[in-house]
Amino acid sequence: QDNSFEQFIINYCNEKLQQIFIELTLKEEQEEYIREGIEWTHIEYFNNAIICDLIENNQTGILAMLDEECLRPGTVTDDTFLEKLNQVCATHQHFESRMSKCSRFLNDTSLPHSCFRIQHYAGKVMYQVEGFVDKNNDLLYRDLSQAMWKASHSLIKALFPEGNPAKINLKRPPTAGSQFKASVATLMKNLQNKNPNYIRCIKPNEKKAADIFNEALVCHQIRYLGLLENVRVRRAGYAFRQAYEPCLERYKMLCKQTWPHWRGPARAGVEVLFNELRIPEEEFSFGRSKIFIRNPRTLFKLEDLRKQRLEDLATLIEKIYRGWKCRTRFLLMKRCQIVIASWYRRYA
């Protein structure tokens, strides 16, 4: 119920994670259909980039203004920080405060004067401004770090490298907000270079007890996690996509024309394969470099056919091996019989 600076930066991280989730799922998937030349009707979704900009913008962002207040000479308090927010962010559609003269929430009694509210992607959150400035400063005075660096314990000395007299930095230490922002930026860069998989955890009830399912709570989480938009894109799009070469390599044994070797372009081979299997045309689309399959049941059918075909091939290999083994044994016995018969006739 009471949210301060700590919850603010946690929610900022959640917004950035939600943003990369949107970029890598909703946006990227629809752009892939366009790149591949697949007929597609764009599905609208909310992009929370505007909320991230409200927090992290280098000039008008909340973190930038908080750092400016912490570094500004003169009397600095949480109230002066809130006044600054009211001046810069008053007209922002995701920022709410009663202290601003042009605020739309002057008569909102649910919003105290010492608070501001942000309409996050997952809903509105109210923050108590008290303590923001002190928590953002998070300063460790230089003489304290030097004292800790002089400790005889190696671990304590390693924890305070800034206390080393040979490495004294006269610059003001970075604020907690700027450090957290840099860490989030590093995390986002790392995730963008990977192929992340997303697992959405949903609480069935507030008590975290078994066999209790709160439908309203679950629907609330599904709505604000963006799962509805993701499902809409997935249902309207294609459940599976794969480049032509690996697709042909995996399923080529299902068609006599492509097995064991296909001479020609991989796309032409996939077209022959799908025509031979008589898969309905509405179940797949040919892109510039990939085959797109709409429903999972079509993919399951291909996998079942492949599994059966592998069993048939295994049976064929086993049959040929047994025939070869029996014939080899028969020929050996026949040669032995001839040798025995010839020696018998010699002495008969």
From TrEMBL:
Could you state one GO cellular component term attached to this entry?
plasma membrane
Q: Which domain of life is it from?
A: Eukaryota
PROSITE patterns, from UniProt? MYOSIN_MOTOR
Name a biological process GO annotation: actin filament organization
Please give the InterPro entries that the UniProt record associates with this protein: Kinesin_motor_dom_sf, Myosin_head_motor_dom-like, P-loop_NTPase
Gene3D superfamilies assigned to the protein according to its UniProt record, in alphabetical order: 1.20.5.190, 1.20.58.530, 6.20.240.20, Kinesin motor domain (3.40.850.10)
Q: Which residues form a coiled coil?
A: none
Q: What Gene Ontology terms describe what this protein does at the molecular function level?
A: actin filament binding; ATP binding; calmodulin binding; microfilament motor activity
Per the record, which residues fall in region Actin-binding? 184-206
Question: SUPFAM superfamilies, per this entry?
Answer: P-loop containing nucleoside triphosphate hydrolases (SSF52540)
Question: Which residues does the UniProt record annotate as the domain Myosin motor?
Answer: 1-307
Matching entries from Pfam families are given as: Myosin_head
Keywords, A to Z?
A: Actin-binding, ATP-binding, Calmodulin-binding, Motor protein, Myosin, Nucleotide-binding, Repeat
Query: What family is this?
Result: Belongs to the TRAFAC class myosin-kinesin ATPase superfamily. Myosin family.
Please give the name of this protein.
MYO1B protein
